[in-house]
Amino acid sequence: xxxxxxxxxxxxxxxxxxxxxxxxxxxxxxxxxxxxxxxxxxxxxxxxxxxxxxxxxxxxxxxxxxxxxxxxxxxxxxxxxxxxxxxxxxxxxxxxxxxxxxxxxxxxxxxxxxxxxxxxxxxxxxxxxxxxxxxxxxxxxxxxxxxxxxxxxxxxxxxxxxxxxxxxxxxxxxxxxxxxxxxxxxxxxxxxxxxxxxxxxxxxxxxxxxxxxxxxxxxxxxxxxxxxxxxxxxxx
Length: 236
Prior knowledge:
The structure is a single chain. This protein is of the alpha+beta class. It folds into 2 domains: 2-94, Pseudouridine synthase I, catalytic domain, N-terminal subdomain (Alpha-Beta Plaits, 2-Layer Sandwich), CATH 3.30.70; 107-235, Alpha-Beta Plaits (2-Layer Sandwich). The chain is built from 5 helices and 10 strands, in the order βαββαβββαβββααβ. The chain has helices at 27-37, 72-82, 135-141, 193-203, 206-213, and strands at residues 2-9, 45-46, 55-64, 87-94, 107-115, 128-129, 147-150, 165-176, 179-186, 229-235. Strands 1, 2, 3, 4, 5, 6, 7, 8, 9 and 10 form a 10-stranded mixed beta sheet that branches. The longest helix has 11 residues, at 27-37. It is globular, with a radius of gyration of 19 Å. The two termini are 19 Å apart.
């Protein structure tokens, strides 16, 4: 039986979401390790990867379960008892055998959270603290990303992808209780693309962002820190 699992996790102390041969200290590495202890040997497939230090409130994965694990409520409870407290299974539901967590996804939503204040130890892992943020500039320039663009100048070097073109359906910023929140919705994102876009919004002007989106000129951008980034929703 194929099932979809929705996960929330604090990515602070993990080496990203994808499994690695050299370490079990990844989100899927931890999940597969626990599943194997429950005699579930199937591979877990996620909707996409999140980098080291990046969080998720609704990552979606699929896994093929053996028949003896038909009680999904019990499985959810057992998994949450066995997984590290920084990883939580929010939902498990049966899906069609043709469902694929990655390839069936239509849109992905990420949020980036900034706070203009002195850093504190209680939020340091979950918010990017900055001073002198020009919200009106960000609110205006973030709209430049909406549309189909070649984002080859907005990805981490060494990425191996067939196409660097992505469609951004929504990109907007708002303030809420002292936080500046940047929201991005697209059919997909390249490696570190959102952190590069946030970095551009913080460091470049509208003309420079437009030139980089048009692949006319590549500016030196410091990617925004990973701790402020959240995978918020997968739309199927």
